[in-house]
Amino acid sequence: MTTIEVDGRSIQVPSDLSVKEALEVLGFSIAMHPSDKGLFMPCQVGGCWACALEIDGANRPACTTQVQEGMRIRTASPKMMPRRMVAGFMGHMAGGVGTPWWLKSGLGFLEAVCFTSGCNLCCPQCQNWQYAYIDYGELLTPEEAAERMTETKRECGVERIAISGGECTLNRPWLISFIKLLKEKNPIARIHVDTNGSILTEDYIDELVDAGMTDIGIDLKALRLSTFMEMTGLMDAGLAAKYLQTAWEAAKYLHDRHPQVFLGIGIPFNEDLISIAEIQEMAERIVEIDPWIQVSLLDYRPEFRRMDLLRPSHWEMLQIHYILRDCGLQSVVCQTERGKIGPGGRLLG
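User: That's the sequence. What structure does it adopt?
Assistant: Structure tokens below.
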């Protein structure tokens, strides 16, 4: 057993636990969704730093820090400077779900992008697993990240900035501060957030828009809970249902309350993951919100723990492109092995 101090109380816990696990043993509630009460610890890999606590006088992630003899932990310490693991500052030629389709010429950089580490989902076929499942990158304050991004934007010669991941929304104080600083340093730039939407509550969306977010892409992975759980690797049906509902509600709220923000919706497709019938149902639901919302159909390739998948062919994706159009969607972008197909079936770039 190991003796630690938590909020001034000396307590013994098993020696092989992380700080997060020790707090759970001691009866602290751990929250995975903003509607839950407790300490918010969503990624479990030390990437997002949303779980950072004051540990021995320093800001450290509770989910990956191991308990040590005499360790002092404060769960209600004064606010410290938020930090986040960030990597991949670069020019982006393909754009993301929240990039308007008419910019996707395939020629030159569209945006300057960075990738935040950590994710609250466990997708076995994650297309960006290098950022989602490890604490990859540099630990940066919002100011440090804004300086890096501004320099990257200048080098790329663009006026669009994209923040992706992993899941970039997990550390809310960090992301809000980052976007505010980006807006101050780049007043005419478009600031684009790509997200799974699973924790985007209405007040969070309002704060992102007030901070300076101008474009957003929400990756809606499914409509049915069973499909969503299989695709995301989540075992807790209650948590999965909250994530799924929050993402769909976020898309509608953004459309209804923030029409000045460019909204794109991503739908992943691979027949081993989701049926064409469910894709069609998703399209019909999006049409009910607005048939002109940009929808990006993403061909999921073999990746991470699902190397058994076969990437859908160009012709399969073209077929589903027209199925979505037949549902009434007017702005469908389809990612294929040959490039992107835009509205009207034109190959972009």
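The radius of gyration is 21 Å.
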